[in-house]
Amino acid sequence: MKTFLTLTLFWTQLLSADVSLHQQQHEELLITNAMVVVGVGTPAEGPYDIHLKDGLIEALSRSKVDAEIRQQGIQELDARGGYVLPGFINMHAHSMTERADIDMPQPYQHYLWLASGITTIRDLGSDLETTLGHRQLSAQHRIIAPRILVYPGIWGNHREAELQKIIKGYKKQGVDGLKFGMMDRQTFMAASALAKKHGLPVANHVGVEDMTAWDNMSAGTTSIEHWYGVPDAALKGVQKFPADMNYSNELHRFRYAGRLWREADPDKLDRVLQGLVDAGVSWDPTLVIYEASRDLQRAITSPWFQDYLHPGLEKFFQPDPESHGSFFWGWTSTDEVFWKENYQIWFQALRDFADKGGIITTGEDGGYIYQLFGFGYLRELQLHQEAGFHPLEVIKHATMNSAQVLGLGDRLGQVRIGYVADLVVVNGNPLADLSVLLPRNIPPLTGDETTGGITWTIKEGIPHHAPTLLQKVRDMVKQARAEHPINYLVKPRGF
What we know:
- With 495 residues, the chain is of the alpha/beta class.
- The protein has a domain at 2-86 and 414-463: Urease, subunit C, domain 1 (Roll), CATH 2.30.40.
- Helix content is 38%, strand content 17%.
- The strands form four sheets. Strands 1, 2, 3, 4, 5, 16, 17 and 18 form an eight-stranded mixed sheet that branches. Strands 11-12-13-14-15 form a five-stranded parallel sheet, covered by helices on one side. Strands 6-9-10 form a three-stranded parallel sheet.
- Helix 5 (160-172) packs parallel to helix 6, helix 7 (213-219) runs parallel beside helix 9 (266-279) and helix 15 (375-386) packs across helix 16.
- The radius of gyration is 23 Å and the shape is globular.
- The termini are far apart.
């Protein structure tokens, strides 16, 4: 009994010492006993010690802390044999300060992202003044948030003179890139030429327009978002829409989106994929954002909703023609069957694209269609595995590939000497089971409470204790629910 109490006290003190590192900035930090996944697709190595200095990775060495380093009194964070990955990059993020007219304080999103291992976000089309302000505050470590790259959105059709004014203004404000969406071909080509002139990368959200992936190839698009535009480019003619199809009706739009991949000609699709690869266009599929379309029951019963779903999101997710992506008022089992098939063809296209040398990244598009920030991103990783990618490839998509597309591949996305110290410390082996990335207060798939969960997300050498961040989120949600009680469960009408 004495031995047991002694060991219990030892581990309690050790855990307490670790938690004291939360959000503390150190010139130097030593992560010990870590199995390292570099992020380039190679197997885990270790155990290693990772020496961080001035926010960079100073050294990696076989685990046995040097006496010389110990004598220097460098603060240590014990990974306890867990896995250390490069910080995740969310390539399709939206910053939101309210939902359904209910205020949603920004730390809610930032904490969820960091607790999910996300150290960098590419913000696509959010309020420009807000995101530019948060970008600066995050870079200065004045707020607790991931690194932010700002891509303001340009939507719809414009005259070229208007585009020149908009893009020149964005460039002057110091944006990192641009997001284009729902443009006709003429507008898209003009906007792309101006973006190229100003040296701004483009993330393109295609809809049903007269432009397709062929136009992305010729325009020099950096990344295509989601997947519209790819199967469209491989059609023989146009999609076989019914006569009463109304694209402005989101129930129609998403219903028939689920029947598009099956109409693509396989030979033409192969040429489209090869053309995208040859043109250097990357693909950010956001598989997770459509998952409710193939399995609505799974989406509305996500276990993390219980503690982490803000009432503003809960209200926004309710089926409503006025809320983008809340289109489930007439969803049917037939729709789900088509979407299940849609996913299988989409998965194959992604594998073919990667086999040809295409670059795939990871993004969540959270805040829409029952997807919660951070949790949606971790589910995205699982869906990449379902698509047929090895977990090492999935981690590469989330880290090295995404950094490369952002133009930051020389300093982000790898656990490598000289790179920025953006790291994720996991209590478990995500290469064996990606679900171990989920926090352990979520019902575990394995039933084993002793493993799993991201314990630390380290951004530029500063450790953020994931369980502490998640507790703060739970407190925020509890307070928000007291102020804004929602008198219905998260479910579509008819359930």
